[in-house]
Amino acid sequence: MKITQDLYQGSLALLTDFYQLTMAYAYWKSGKAEEEAVFNLFFRKNPFQGGFTVAAGLDYIIDYCRNFKFGQDDLDYLKSMKNADGSLTFEPAFLEYLSKMEFSCDLDAVEEGTVVFPHMPIIKIKGPLIQCQLLETPLLNIINFQTLIATKAARIVYAAKGDSVLEFGLRRAQGIDGALAASRAAYIGGCTSTSNVMAGKLFGIPVSGTHAHSWIMSFDSELEAFKAYADAFPDKCVFLVDTYDTIKGVKNAIEVGKILRERGKEMLGVRIDSGDLAYYSNLAREMLDEAGFPDAKIVASNDLDEQIITSLKIQEASINVWGVGTKLVTAFDQPALGAVYKLAAIKNKEGLWEPKVKVSQQSIKINVPGNQRVVRFSKNGKALADMIFLKEESLERGQFTIIDPVDPTKRKKIYTDGLEKEELLKSIFEKGTKVYERPDIHQTKKNTERNLTQFDKAHKRLVNPHVYPVGLEEGLYELRTQLVFKMKDYDGA
Ligand SMILES: Nc1ncnc2c1ncn2[C@@H]1O[C@H](COP(=O)(O)OP(=O)(O)OP(=O)(O)O)[C@@H](O)[C@H]1O
Ligand SMILES: O=P(O)(O)OC[C@H]1O[C@H](OP(=O)(O)OP(=O)(O)O)[C@H](O)[C@@H]1O
Ligand SMILES: O=C(O)c1cccnc1
Ligand SMILES: [Mg+2]
């Protein structure tokens, strides 16, 4: 299919906001294009009022950076752009410069599946100002969505308490790439499979599914429909039992289950897609058990999300498998993560790095300056706190104080003796060359699981979670405060 081929293999250099290109042009014009800069990508609040976030999207970013090149057709398009007075928007020498541009940055990032928190850089990029600037929009586009969906999936899977969650979202997803990226991120977040066959092909995700009401409706009776399905897929029978009358539907499923058994095959289960899912699943369970099908699974679907699944668990519904579509792939209750990308440092004419802050009335919006690293302190595999600190800082200290970036009254002393330290930002590109061995998607999914087990359930609680401590190392906090004063011209008077 041409659309997705273009999306995944063609030149994507123009997948950026126009202002990135006008700034790029102005950087070039003013001789700043090649100045070295550091930018950070981070978000300010965990989504869904939750206590954690699962990073996803790096794999796309690796491809994006590797293919970062203005193609001739991109340059032709830019050449055709005119200002209001009819003059060229971009002068030919700039387009010539763009035609030779190759990705040459250092890029550090947390691996996909890493549990991350507000304010920490999840991607850090260091390189020519012009490249860092042009990458802002695509990096945000990729990370914002996939991280959001991976997190939503992790929450849904958490609510399902070990049951399989099948992702059914394609029909309601935000367009073609929204659907594909969502299926990928949902798998990373913990879903068992997707119904999206193209996602299966492109990403190697397991594909699964049952059948629809239309299948039943196309026959004169439900029983006939089940029998015909059993003939076609004797090993894959999950009968949708609620087209007409759920109780009769379960009876019909049992009847066909017995026929299958005579042929040496086992019905896998039934799916319920409407009505009171607790009531009908419990009834179905009783009927299936009584009829000698204790292993038949009960799949539920119909506008599910983590809250409804939690409620159904409390009601002791007999549901073993959850089919979740719309509310997962559209991140229904929070449609954007809100990650941002900010300049953190720039090398001045003397070759010295200058940390940078963007001052805001709201302290949550003041970014963290300087070239940073992030360390996760844990004890016996249990994460205790994360610290954002300056690159030059040594981790070989016995004690650190971390300070909440938004509320300086929240501080925590960390005595490092006996603690495990994991640096979260891994080197992905060095001067434009990929140095990172990417895991396959199944390893990434396992990475999510491993990461989530490190965190106490108090942080994973879906409602009013306990806030996991993430802070700035004291020296970095002080640097930020001083910079804010300096930029505001505040002399303390
Ligand atoms: N026992 C339950 N506890 C809490 N929520 C439930 C329970 N059973 C079903 N739900 C949820 O309630 C909502 C019911 O939605 P709705 O009224 O649109 O469906 P329906 O009338 O059962 O089905 P349909 O319109 O598809 O025939 C769904 O989101 C479903 O997941
Ligand atoms: O509810 P979701 O989480 O999005 O899961 C996917 C839904 O898609 C299918 O039906 P569809 O919604 O197309 O039709 P229906 O509501 O009339 O059953 C399926 O039966 C699920 O109910
Ligand atoms: O396979 C299924 O049961 C399925 C697939 C997509 C949407 N709803 C259900
Ligand atoms: Mg529906």
Automatic annotation (TrEMBL):
Its EC number is 6.3.4.21. It catalyses: 5-phospho-alpha-D-ribose 1-diphosphate + nicotinate + ATP + H2O = nicotinate beta-D-ribonucleotide + ADP + phosphate + diphosphate. Residues 14-144 form the Nicotinate phosphoribosyltransferase N-terminal domain. It comes from the Bacteria. GO terms for molecular function: glycosyltransferase activity; nicotinate phosphoribosyltransferase activity. Keywords: Glycosyltransferase, Ligase, Phosphoprotein, Pyridine nucleotide biosynthesis, Transferase. Transiently phosphorylated on a His residue during the reaction cycle. Phosphorylation strongly increases the affinity for substrates and increases the rate of nicotinate D-ribonucleotide production. Dephosphorylation regenerates the low-affinity form of the enzyme, leading to product release. Catalyzes the first step in the biosynthesis of NAD from nicotinic acid, the ATP-dependent synthesis of beta-nicotinate D-ribonucleotide from nicotinate and 5-phospho-D-ribose 1-phosphate. Belongs to the NAPRTase family. This is Nicotinate phosphoribosyltransferase. It comes from Fontibacter flavus.
